[in-house]
Write a structure and sequence with these properties.
The chain contains 21 helices and 21 strands. The protein is α/β, with parallel strands linked by helices and 631 residues long. The structure holds 2-acetamido-2-deoxy-beta-D-glucopyranose (2 copies). The site of one 2-acetamido-2-deoxy-beta-D-glucopyranose has 7 residues, from loops.
Length: 631
């Protein structure tokens, strides 16, 4: 009698449970493969400091690229909940430089929607780029920031290939964005990464993998980029003279000029020889120009923190030999913010790698000895996409004079340099002078006034308008190029906005994604079903006097449901993404002052966990082989 009844109940239970079980097993076995796993819904300060309507829709986490060597790239995506027609259908990828500096610099001090306050909480940045399109900050190459792998990249074509893999995985995760316009943006040493990745995207578009679509690459946007090492190393002296940092009648002049000439000879010799075109051309002699400049312009009588020029902003000063490595000030808050366990959980980290602003190990591996400097990719790129170069005019390390010199020599679109009849336009943003703009044959060069190496740090609103310039959304009147600020744009197009927020997000998205709420509802349904089944089975078992295997199965199934969090690997079981960290520590103790081949001029700030090394530990000696970072 009871048998048909039980099988009927089990049949309905199985039916009712099928859907939630599928989702549950998906959750358990494939954590890190659905958008839901990457949703960010809370952060310290988010609800207190950001108006609800302004909270961006966010996704973050460590996306698996290669299972075989445990390579995961961390990304953090910000999306405007009220999209305007101008911000819809665009994805901006942002990369910081180094090599080895985390794009969390960009997210939390530059183009992202938040800054971190003294209580290590998020506060709003009024000039965030996510109002111009979705912006995705990616920690790469592997070993940078929250990204990890058992392997490091040594050459730029590896960086390119791995980023292409990231894009593939990213668009598998966000298929609804696959036809968005793509902008590759970033800063400093990303002036090497971005042209390589751009090349990779264009090559892929010529031979799109089966079942995928070409990427709509709109343009490359590079801020204070390290693009042509030869031209840029030879720009330090002209820049220093122009900025009044040295002069022919000053004692600093002779030693600086001497170093400049050494570099010039090497570059001239390399030009005539087939080694030209490798990044190794700029060797220590060229890198040293900046070191000599900073050393020779020291003011030993100044207060300790003011003795050296800040190489990222010559109007500021820093202690020697940091000379800018303690800058920008926001870093002192960003670093502890990203070390909070709560934040790492909020960002869905599956491997809580210790965050460092810049990884010395990444820089030590990525010597790019056999890679051509990215300037050599420009002619081909410019035949197919727009490139926008912007330079904060106070930066020394990747200064605008070097960029202008490099453009003067560059041959693209059948001519060398900008056409002689191209006049710079003065750029006014929201009525205020922002810089000047030169544009010709798909290349735009912008000098931004009163800005450092990290333009969006100093001039957030102005920097966001760069995306408008890329998209030709400006007026030109009487030789002046005018852009509007964000609020002006938003208010004019309010009526056309579309809304989506984290809370309604899943409801909007396709049926494959369930909301947290509906998932909970289904879990409750499942639990009820299990309890009923269990109850019936229990009755049946007392009736039969001994438990059946059905009971055991259900019991263990229930345990799994209740404790599914147990399946997430514990700290000990987790793959040692710390591998990279340990490695970098090792290589450091072996050879603490290993010179980095080229231009790792990144002058970053030295966070408490900083791995960067200043080669001269003797402050009274002229630095040689100082390791700098291009943030
Ligand atoms: C600029 O790029 C477009 C494609 O966006 C291309 O058709 C055009 O030929 C390029 N212009 C030059 C001068 O190469
Ligand atoms: C900003 O730059 C402009 C043009 O170079 C200059 O006239 C002005 O004094 C600068 N403002 C500040 C605050 O430095």
């Amino acid at each position: 009698m009871i048998f048909p009844f039980i099988s009927l109940v089990l049949f309905y239970a199985a039916l009712a449970a099928a859907t939630p079980l599928k989702r549950l097993s998906h959750l358990l076995s494939n954590r890190g493969t659905s958008q839901q796993d990457f949703l960010v819904t809370s952060l310290p300060g988010l609800s207190e400091n950001i108006a609800e309507a302004d909270v961006p829709l966010m996704f973050a986490g460590q996306l698996e690229l290669y299972a075989e060597n445990n390579t995961h790239y961390f990304f953090w995506k910000f999306s405007e909940p009220r999209k305007t027609p101008e911000s819809a259908n665009r994805t901006i990828f942002w990369l910081n430089g180094g090599p080895g500096c985390s794009s969390m610099d960009g997210a939390l001090m530059e183009s992202g929607p938040f800054r971190i306050d003294d209580n290590y909480k998020v506060v709003a940045n009024s000039g965030s780029w996510h109002k111009k399109g979705d912006i995705v900050f990616v920690d790469q190459p592997s070993g940078t920031g929250f990204s990890y792998s058992e392997k490091y990249d040594a050459e730029l074509d590896q960086v390119e290939a791995h980023f292409l893999r990231f894009l593939q995985k990213y668009f598998e995760l966000f298929p609804e964005d696959a036809e968005n316009e793509i902008v590759l943006a970033g800063e400093s040493y990303a002036g090497q990464y971005i042209p390589y990745i751009g090349r990779g995207v264009l090559l892929r578009n010529q031979n799109v993998p089966e079942g995928e679509k070409p990427y709509k690459l709109k343009g490359l946007v590079i801020g204070n980029g390290w693009i042509s090492p030869n031209d840029q190393a030879l720009s330090y002296v002209p820049f220093a003279v122009q900025a009044g940092l040295t002069a022919t009648d000053k004692p600093s002049w002779k030693p600086i000029l001497h170093q400049h000439m050494k570099c010039q000879e090497l570059v001239a010799a390399a030009n005539t020889d087939d080694t030209f075109g490798t990044n190794s051309v700029v060797d220590k002699e060229c890198e040293k120009i900046l070191n000599v400049l900073l050393y020779q312009t020291l003011d030993p009588n100044a207060a300790k923190n003011d003795q050296c020029i800040n190489m990222y902003d010559y109007t500021l000063r820093d202690s020697y030999p940091s000379c800018g490595m303690n800058w920008p000030p926001g870093l002192a808050n960003v670093n502890p913010f990203l070390h909070q366990d709560e934040v790492m959980s909020n960002l869905n980290l599956i491997n809580k790698v210790e965050w460092n602003e810049c990884s010395g190990a990444v820089g030590t591996h990525l010597k790019a000895r056999h890679s051509r400097p990215s300037i050599m990719l420009f002619p081909d790129l410019l035949a197919q996409v727009e490139i926008l170069l912007f330079h904060g005019n106070r930066d020394i390390i990747c200064n605008y004079i070097g960029a202008e010199d490099m453009i003067k020599k560059l041959r693209w679109g059948g001519l060398t340099g900008f056409s002689s009849d191209i006049e710079p336009l003065l750029w006014f943003h929201a009525g205020e002078e922002a810089g000047y703009v030169k544009s010709d044959r798909n290349l735009t060069f912008i000098n931004i006034f009163n800005a450092s190496h990290m333009v969006p740090f100093d001039r957030p609103e102005v920097s966001a308008a760069l995306i408008d310039i890329l998209n030709k959304r400006y007026d030109v009147v009487d030789g002046k190029l005018n852009t509007k600020n964000l609020s002006a744009q938003t208010s004019t197009s309010d009526s056309e906005t579309t809304n989506s927020t984290a809370s309604d997000y899943s409801a909007d998205s396709d049926a494959d994604e369930s909301t947290t709420n509906s998932r909970i509802v289904r879990l409750i349904q499942l639990a009820v079903v299990i309890i009923i089944v269990w109850g019936i089975c229990a009755i049946y078992s007392t009736y039969r006097s001994k438990p059946t295997s059905i009971i055991k199965t259900k019991a263990s199934g229930r345990k799994k449901n209740v404790q599914w969090a147990d399946l997430i690997p514990s700290e000990e079981e987790q793959p040692k993404g710390f591998f990279s960290k340990a490695l970098s520590k090792l290589s450091r103790s072996d050879n603490p002052y290993a010179p980095v081949a080229n231009e790792d001029i990144e002058l970053g700030t030295a966070p408490p966990h900083d791995e960067f090394i200043i080669a001269s530990d003797d402050e009274t000696e002229e630095p040689s082989g100082k390791h700098t970072e291009n943030k």
